[in-house]
Amino acid sequence: MISIIIPVLNEAENIGKLLQHLRKNSDSDNISDIIVVDGGSIDGTKDIVLQFVSSSDYQDSETRLELTNQIAVRLLNSPKGRAKQMNIGAKHSKGDILYFLHADSFPPKHFDRYIINEVRKGNKAGCFRMQFESNHWWLRLASWLTQFSWRACRGGDQSQFITKSLFEAIGGYNENYIIYEDNILINELYKRKQFVVINKKLKTSARLYKKVGIWKLQYHFWTIYIKRWLGASADEMLAYYKRNIA
Question: What pLDDT, on a 0 to 100 scale, did the predictor assign at position 61?
């Protein structure tokens, strides 16, 4: 079964839509739990999650909830940082497959079946191809390229499934990386030749491209990628991100 882990920070705009989407597009028999890991939201994200539950019993450390289709949901609090949040979610998960998902990324219908089928075939990790919610020609091209297995076409927005045993063997997400943590894990998976791209489209928001500017953001993403390839430290990459993107 699959544990879905969603790190959030001020995602009131998206988290309700995502929880509805997950409920409507999966089989509850395949999902052991959905774990929303909050990094300190102040915009009502937690209140929106509570709208999906049959019980509003809330505790600061953890709230055990349940969606109306009987998929158990846990709301966990964590220090800010996606790597930390996702590791905490994995630690508390019940499933033997982990599925890490951004709050603004919406997987395809029957995503749970596609993931389980790949694991049964011996593929222990992978992602879906991606489609940006934008008609800009560059983002359409970038979306099209994600169907291929090239390492340069990978990123956290495509989501990440991985067996719990493999995740633990790697050591989880590297918490030294405040940014680029998804790619560090993906690098480890490519080294082990444990990665497959499921040829079904996950739809994700282009909000950061709209905010920063498509060409400006793409340039900075490429620069960060090259910096890491040349051996830049986690702190150097974070400083660049804060200076040019955040």
Answer: 41
Q: Specify whether the CB–CB gap between 122 and 62 falls below 8 A.
A: no
Distance of alpha carbon 88 from alpha carbon 90, whole angstroms: 5
Same domain for 71 and 157? yes
pLDDT digits over 56-79, tens only?
Answer: 334 444 444 444 456 888 899 999
Do 211 and 183 reside in the same domain of the chain? no
> Do 123 and 143 reside in the same domain of the chain?
yes
- Residue 86: CB atoms within 10 Å: 28
**Spatial contact of 24 and 117, defined as CB atoms under 8 Å apart:** no
- Largest Cα–Cα separation, the chain: 51
State whether 150 and 219 are in the same domain. Answer: no
Q: Are residues 174 and 231 in the same domain?
A: no
Are the C-beta atoms of residues 50 and 59 closer than 8 Å to each other?
Answer: no
Which pTM value belongs to this model?
0.93
What 8-state DSSP symbol labels residue 108? P
In a shared domain, residues 193 and 219: no
Q: What type of residue sits at position 180?
A: Y
Give the model confidence (pLDDT) of 87-128 as tens digits.
999 999 999 999 999 999 999 999 999 999 999 999 999 999
Question: 17: closest CA among 225, 143, 189, 204?
Answer: 204
Under 8 Å between Cβ of 172 and 87: yes
Range of the domain at 187: 2-205
Alpha helices in the chain (DSSP H): 15-24, 45-50, 82-91, 111-120, 137-145, 164-170, 181-191, 207-212, 214-229, 234-244
Same domain, 21 and 138: yes
Assess whether pLDDT exceeds 80 at residue 53: no
